[in-house]
Amino acid sequence: MSTLMDRLNETVAFIRSRYNSKPIVGIVLGSGLGNLVAEMKVEAEIPYSEVPHFPVSTVQGHSGKLIFGELSGRKVLAMAGRFHYYEGYSASDVAFPVRVMKMLGVETLLLSNAAGGMNAAFSVGDLMIIEDHISLFAVNPLIGKNEDELGTRFPDMSEPYSRELVKKAVKIAADKNIKVHRGVYVGVTGPTFETRAEYKMLHKLGADAVGMSTVQEVITARHMNMNVFAISVITDLGIREEDNIITHEEVLEAAREAEPKLTAIFSQLVQAI
């Protein structure tokens, strides 16, 4: 059986055979947030199904391809569709594309996601810049043999999200008159939305928003010494008075409505890198 490094090298070699420029920014586009691609000057697209050792996304709203090109004058690699632990992939599978990005030359990783709001100040459609996260409920992607070529055995996580990028994004949002919150994201496995009691518990633990992605990608990126920035679209409110249920369709709709704001921030942030 091939080792992780063998698989990574094979994947990277295949991608380079199809696209030979070096992307410096990687972007992971979450639920309903795929239209940033319209702002890109696309140079190549590769469906996940063609990439050796790559998982294939199974979630509605995720298109499933690598998109290479330019955004705001920078070479970028966008993942249209991400992988989730709840789809049945291992934490290592979820981490694999981030490792590939780094080996292709990516130095900065930008992430977006849909999240449930637990902060009383949040409304559906708001944006929250992630300043920190809690990942105690998600399986750590670094469990297992450490590949010293990728990073250290015990990576420091005191600054998972680049303070410099957060500062730049806050200024961009202010200049464009886009309201943003800053807060803590907690990653859970899903695929169920949380119970009311779970939302309350997670909020008491210090989280402002909760979602089923991102933290494993961030841990992987920091292990490989990439700079990370992430933003959540608040697509539903977990702590609420009314007696309603949350559906995936509502989440996608809220994400679509917030998309122009998110696209504006990401485009400017890429330019500032």
From TrEMBL:
Question: What would be an example GO MF term here?
Answer: purine-nucleoside phosphorylase activity
Q: What keywords were assigned to this record?
A: Glycosyltransferase, Phosphoprotein, Transferase
| Uppermost EC category | transferase
The record's listing under InterPro entries reads: Nucleoside_phosphorylase_d, Nucleoside_phosphorylase_sf, Pur_Nuc_Pase_Ino/Guo-sp, Purine_phosphorylase
Gene Ontology cellular-component terms listed: cytoplasm
SUPFAM superfamilies in alphabetical order = Purine and uridine phosphorylases (SSF53167)
Read off the Pfam families from this record: PNP_UDP_1
Could you tell me which residue ranges the Nucleoside phosphorylase domain spans?
Answer: 25-270
Q: Which GO terms describe its biological process?
A: nucleoside metabolic process
Coiled coil regions, renumbered to chain: none
EC number(s) per entry: 2.4.2.1
Q: Which domain of life is it from?
A: Bacteria
User: Which pathway does the protein contribute to?
Assistant: Purine metabolism; purine nucleoside salvage
Matching entries from PANTHER family are given as: METHYLTHIOADENOSINE/PURINE NUCLEOSIDE PHOSPHORYLASE, PURINE NUCLEOSIDE PHOSPHORYLASE-RELATED
**Family assignment?**
Belongs to the PNP/MTAP phosphorylase family.
Its biological purpose is as follows: The purine nucleoside phosphorylases catalyze the phosphorolytic breakdown of the N-glycosidic bond in the beta-(deoxy)ribonucleoside molecules, with the formation of the corresponding free purine bases and pentose-1-phosphate.
Q: What is this protein called?
A: Purine nucleoside phosphorylase
Its organism's taxonomic lineage begins at:
Bacteria, Pseudomonadati, Bacteroidota, Chitinophagia, Chitinophagales
